[in-house]
Amino acid sequence: MAQQDAQNGGSENAGAVAATVSFVALKPQLFVEAPKANDAVLFYKAAFGAEEVSRSLNPKRKAEHELPLILSAELKIGGSSILVADITDDSASLVKTGGNGVVLCLETGDVEGAIAKALGAGAIAEGEVVEGEGACCGGRVGKVKDPYGFVWLICSPGKKCGGDVEA
Amino acid sequence: MAQQDAQNGGSENAGAVAATVSFVALKPQLFVEAPKANDAVLFYKAAFGAEEVSRSLNPKRKAEHELPLILSAELKIGGSSILVADITDDSASLVKTGGNGVVLCLETGDVEGAIAKALGAGAIAEGEVVEGEGACCGGRVGKVKDPYGFVWLICSPGKKCGGDVEA
What we know:
The structure is a homodimer. By secondary structure, chain A is an alpha+beta fold. The first copy, chain A, folds into two domains: 26-95, 2,3-Dihydroxybiphenyl 1,2-Dioxygenase, domain 1 (Roll), CATH 3.10.180; 99-160, 2-Layer Sandwich (Signal recognition particle alu RNA binding heterodimer, srp9/1). Helix content of chain A is 24%, strand content 32%.
């Protein structure tokens, strides 16, 4: 462990467990008052030339609304990705803690390790790691708040991404 | 102009001027209560393995504070960039309008064209395009608010980036 720490320059708190955590993507996620996420996607296409890469819809809501709510639409602008989502009951608390509705999604193959490392460095866990339809488009999602008030979603790379695309 | 519109498939509102606007980068910028941006950078290094790419300091503040305020520190996480900045008098209004202090920086070679296109699509201009030490690390920066409440900084690619790096 000491050797690993030395190799990776790990801090005392972050510990050896998570010393090898790496991230494959960082995407800002914008939460929009439901059901306006679709309008927002159209706006970002018109305003910034955004290209829609994928879209996943909220399965819970399909029957209740004329417009299915968007769980996560991934857009490319300037070579980077943003995610746009309708605020749902599930994500409402996330947006409240996140302030204006921008949270930062970090994709990693080691969700638990990444969360442990962040907590070791001083972040605060918010809730449990949940499987399935989290706000990010990955399969497993955990949430931490950093000491400066920003919310980070730590999620596994999007197994749902690429499917369910609608214009 | 009609010819340009036809060539570029420009929308009626966005107009020919901005039909060819393209973006070279999109970076979330996190505004932190001054002078904690340096602590935040250290935290993101420890928590997420962030690598600092560049840092520019606020020239106005160097004499008044023990710690120079950070105008913009660029960090790489998961192959993407985020910017971390101390909130200054200049950026305070930006953070207020941006909510929790996350704004989205879009870099482009055509700041005016990009702003015109965004306004044509329904964004609202906030202030003038300013030269110099804007919140992004580019040379010229304009600000628009989209219809969903998010603030975008439209800036020229960072001519100051890469310089002034301090650990």
